[in-house]
UniProtKB/TrEMBL annotation:
Alphabetical UniProt keywords: Chromophore, FAD, Flavoprotein, Lyase
Provenance organism: Alkalicoccobacillus gibsonii
Enzyme class: lyase
MF terms in GO: deoxyribodipyrimidine photo-lyase activity
Phylogenetic placement of the source organism: Bacteria, Bacillati, Bacillota, Bacilli, Bacillales
Flavoprotein as UniProt keyword: yes
Annotated Photolyase/cryptochrome alpha/beta domain residues: 1-131
Name listed for the protein in its UniProt record: Deoxyribodipyrimidine photo-lyase
Cofactor requirement: FAD
Listed EC numbers: 4.1.99.3
């Protein structure tokens, strides 16, 4: 028979659960087919994330081709796509894929399972995207956690899944090429490729693995010390690769452990592994609360009287708030589709506590702009910052954006990189340029109110209003 491996957000050929399991199931005369489904509406909303994903997809398709494992494309509605598959490959008897446990992907996977239920095709959804799946880390009574610290204790206790080796010789041996019968899909793929800009040169498995090597060889020991300073490239920047599956989370985990060996100084690596556990945690939270993209997890905050102010929102989006660190962060997001974690917390806090705007608006804007957009982590991050999540920042602990700036970008290097209007502003004023005396503004060619805005709100006033807004809810 023919076994199909359906690629999705797992665009790699190393440590791949679905492919590895499919290979183990093959008998001597069985054929193997690589599949990719193109949803016709995929291109209706073309964002940086789509662009980045298509680049990764192209690299993956090319790599598969090189390894003798040509990718077949199907398109149309899910049902039409499966008809194409069954018509063109009548002896398909197994379908393997790495399942989504949350969001739209989980719904689609259920449709797939339902569709094939009454056919002779066996479907094998695999857990692959996280180190531990959403239901693997449980309390003694079998229920799921709501608080990270106790989740993490349990997470650490569990045996970790092993690397899912992919024998590329075996892939080549069994792979078949029936692409001539899949013209419609091939055209749809061509269209995707034409729509991408090609600007994401570093997308894909090869670059992702290089970045991982680079991080584990040098930066990871200082991770704990440097991870909070956006001017220093102290974090791994692996999130876009984890999102597209160009690098597997298990591989990241084991590469770190291997590099560490029995060295005692494990603080950096330990903190890093804890971040991977946060990723698993938010996947579990979203699994547990599928409505959390639209609903505050804490009930009493469900009908907050958020500000609706297009002008303020635009200023936040564009990075024109007059708070240099917030502006630099938003411009980083707009320019490179990625933002440093410390700054994601700062801008999310700013939107919800200084502008008193609905966190959903911010969550959606991140969805449009981030190349690493991961619904579970993004919703988790936003509900954390807006104090509405299961294990969130308490509402009364409000970030002071200027203080954040002084602490985490002390010399203002990050600010100057992304807010060129401020490039000549001396360190003394870089966090509050509105305080520059007029002569100095002239000297550094940065007139406040003209070249760079006055702060759009007064932090201490807004802080008080935020406290009232939340307190009112009990
Ligand atoms: P590193 O510090 O090198 O961490 C390694 C990996 O651990 C990351 O790649 C990521 O997969 C995981 N990780 C780290 N921190 C977190 C965290 N707090 N929650 C979940 N996973 C984490 N992360 C996303 O991948 N996609 C998102 O859409 C996303 N949205 C966020 C929104 C807000 C408001 C906040 C506060 C955080 C968000 N995060 C999101 C988490 C975090 O900011 C990013 O994962 C991190 O900045 C990615 O950079 P890195 O790979 O250099 O991280």
């Amino acid at each position: 028979g023919t076994t199909v491996v359906w690629f999705r957000r797992d665009l790699r050929l190393h440590d791949h659960t679905a492919l590895s399991k499919a290979l183990s199931s093959l008998e001597k005369d069985d054929s193997l087919v690589a599949l990719f489904y193109i949803q016709p509406t995929l291109n209706d909303t073309f964002t940086a994330r789509h662009d980045y994903y298509y680049e990764t997809l192209m690299k993956h398709v090319e790599k598969c081709e090189k390894k003798g494992f040509p990718v077949h494309f199907v398109t149309g509605s899910l049902e039409e796509a499966f008809h194409q598959l069954q018509n063109q490959l009548p002896d398909v008897d197994q379908l393997f894929f790495n399942a989504d446990e949350t969001g739209g992907g989980a719904k689609r996977d259920q449709e797939v399972i339902d569709y094939f239920h009454s056919t002779s095709i066996n479907v094998f959804p695999c857990i692959d995207h996280t180190i531990h799946g959403a239901t693997e880390v449980k309390k003694q009574d079998g229920s799921l956690y709501k608080v990270f610290s106790s989740y993490y204790k349990q997470w650490q206790q569990l045996d970790k899944p092993s690397i899912q080796q992919v024998d590329l010789d075996k892939v080549k041996e069994h792979a078949i090429d029936k692409r001539d019968s899949f013209k419609r899909g091939a055209n749809a793929y061509q269209k995707l490729m034409e729509s991408k800009t090609g600007k994401w040169k570093y997308a894909g498995e090869e670059h992702g693995l290089e970045r991982l090597e680079d991080f584990t060889h040098s930066k990871m020991y200082d991770y704990k010390k440097k991870r909070d300073f956006p001017a220093v490239a102290g974090t791994s920047m692996l999130s876009p690769y984890l999102r597209t599956g160009a690098v597997s989370a298990r591989t990241v985990y084991y590469t770190i452990l291997d590099e560490l060996g029995d060295q005692a100084n494990g603080q950096g690596p330990e903190t890093y592994i804890q971040e991977l556990a946060w990723r698993d945690f938010y996947n579990m939270v979203f699994y547990q609360f599928p409505e959390s993209k639209d609903q505050e997890l804490i009930e009493k905050y469900r009908d907050m009287d958020w500000n609706q102010d297009d002008e303020l929102f635009e200023a936040w989006k564009k990075g024109e708030t007059g708070f240099p660190i917030i502006d630099a962060a938003m411009r980083q997001l707009n320019q490179i589709g990625w933002m440093h974690n410390r700054l994601r917390m700062a801008v999310a806090s700013f939107l919800t506590k200084d502008l008193l705007m609905n966190w959903r608006e911010g969550e959606r804007y991140f969805e449009e702009q981030l190349i690493d957009y991961e619904p579970a982590s993004n919703i988790g991050g936003w509900q954390w910052a807006s104090s509405t999540g299961t294990d969130a920042a308490p509402y009364f602990r409000i970030f002071n954006p200027t203080r954040q700036s002084e602490r985490f970008d002390p010399d203002g290097d990050f600010i100057r990189k992304y807010v060129p209007e401020l490039k000549d502003v001396p360190k003394k004023y870089i966090h509050s340029p509105e305080k520059m005396p007029e002569e100095l503004q002239e000297e550094v060619s940065c007139e406040i109110g003209k070249d760079y805005p006055h702060p759009i709100v007064d932090h201490s006033t807004m802080r008080k209003r935020a406290l009232e807004l939340y307190k009112e809810k009990g």
